Here is the input.
Amino acid sequence: MTRWLQDNMPKIVLAPSFIAVMVFVYGFIAWTAWVSLTRSRLMPRYEFDSFIQYERLADSPRFETAMVNLAIFGTLFIVIAMVLGLLLAILLDQKIRTEGAIRTIYLYPMALSMIVTGTAWKWILNPELGIEATVKGWGFANFEFNWLVDPDMAIYTVVLAAVWQSSGFVMALFLAGLRSVDEEIIKAAQVDGIPTWRVYSAIIIPSMAPIFLSAFIVLAHLAIKAFDLVIALTGGGPGYATDLPATYMYAMAFSRGDIGQAASSAMVMMLVVFTIVVPYLYSELRTKDD
Amino acid sequence: MKSYVLSTASAIAVCAAGAVSADGHAEAEVLHYWTSGGEAKSVAVLQEEFAANGGTWTDMPVAGGGGDAAGTALRARVLSGNAPTAAQIKGPAIQEWYAEGVLADISSVAEANDWANLLPASIAAHMQCEGTWCAAPVNVHRVDWIWANTEILAANGIEMPTTWDEFNAAAETLQAAGIIPLAHGGQAWQDATVFETVVLGLGGAEFYQAALVDLDPEALTSDTMIAAFDQMRTMRGYVDPNFSGRDWNLATAMVMNGEAAFQIMGDWAKGEFLAAGKVPGVDFTCASTPGDGYLYNVDSFAMFSVEGDGKAAGQELLAELIMGPNFQEVFNMNKGSIPARTDVDLSGFDECAQISAADMASTNDGGTLMPSYAHGMALFGAQSGAITDVVTAHFNSDMSSEEAVQMLANAVANSR
Here is the structure.
């Protein structure tokens, strides 16, 4: 008996969480997929009705805006946060005196929830309260910075706030990566008289490839599921100019009583995640086989 | 812990239900979203009356999202087979819930109390599902109000506008005088509120009915609709640059403190004026928006099919009290709306409410009493949402009116 327990303990301990994940994650994904193929309105109905919801989604200018916004937001957010994070990490890696304090300062925005970040930036960017009003108060009467209320520019304020929140975290990731590079190689390079920028570009950064990948995955999923930041910062507005797929789904499911639309947009979101995660998983699994 | 508390609470509730329903004692669990100060006070009136008539009231207020959160809670309750006895639902959502087969029939109360003759015909129609009565109306909010700062109008020699051209002329005068003509909050539902008053004002009730209630494609792409979008574009020039995302009550405050002259908003705005100690006719002026007609937003309670004599008795008592003259008077005086039944003495109400009641009676006779699309009285959620998307997209961009009507027709077709 003890012997049997010893052998099977890991399975017994894992079983409840495994079942919970199967039901509450994969089971509900399957349920959502099913509902997305019905004409569910206020309440879920289970009569199959082909791809009508996906056709409606394709015809919806609002969902198109949401997808375009996701592309703009996702690309800019990931690229800027990574570049800025890497730059900060390299600067911090120069063995400066107050590194601990500075690192904490840059990392702190991560401790705030997206709602706080969104609300704070809403006030900072508000033309009548924040930056524009302040600069005008200094006497530059023609100064304009109204991205928040400009439908064409509002999505970039979301990028700005998200980058502010996350680049410190990316910096910490990269800093750990920089520190893990073999000192000997760097010293050897310095002995050979190779300039510092070449050391970084040719030795250190290429050897950090796994860190780039993890940073990318973390940032990508933050971008795709971004919801609270938009709600707090712009509320999806002006109009629906800063709608993202997640806010679209929320509006359909909870304000409009259009569960079929919500389910189909959720499935599209999941496909977007898959296109990013599947190549990652594939590469991970392959390296293990080697 | 949380689930423990919940299960204990529901166990107690079940025991209580068992104990009282045995002797046919009236009880009701009421799901509603009146949680802010004035609203909570208003619903407490109903609660007290219910208790005074020997009933047991279980309150289930769900705050947030202008009823969205309450709708989600209701769906969860109904799906799990545990519907509340009564829930605050309005407009075509009542018929949508009826189609799901979960609403109870309260015809006996309605017929015994002659609701059909007490309510304006179009409002009574909202309370009926395939010939039976399935909901009880609480109040009538008028949506097509224009509120003005009396002092500013007097100082600039402006009368309350009776046509949209007059409104535009007044707005030009005000703009030249350095006053924001229109206080507005750039949220989709507020854009929709202004839009529907413009459609009603420019097109008249018949056009409004065809376009925003019957969704007639010809009306949606007509020249009148283009003119309505043109007027929206003009009015976009009358709001301040910082209007995006502003809450409606902040826009009301702008009118109050003289920053802006007009606001177009339902009569819940009156509550803001009154709460700030402003007097109608002296500090602020109320009038219907330019044009004829009346847009109503009626709150109501629908009863759900539930087991138990006690609950059925509770539903009947609740329905009777909701339509009772005393509750209709006290509640609506608190809430800023007017009674849904037409025989309530209005002498205690302010002058805006009296205008509203008189107009409701006259538009009912004239057939121009119309449901508000922006406030979920005319269409299903998906349809009104699709229209609102176009309205707000047009208002917040440089889209032309011709493009807007085309987009409107497509969106409506896509929402069916």
Q: What stands out?
A: Residues 249 and 272 of chain B are 7 Å apart (CA to CA). The first strand of chain B starts at residue 27 and ends at 32. The interface with chain A takes residues 65, 68-69, 71-72, 75, 78-79, 93, 96-97, 100, 186-188, 191, 241-245, 380-382, 385, 389, 392-393, 395-397, 407, 410-411, 414-415 of chain B (CB under 8 Å).
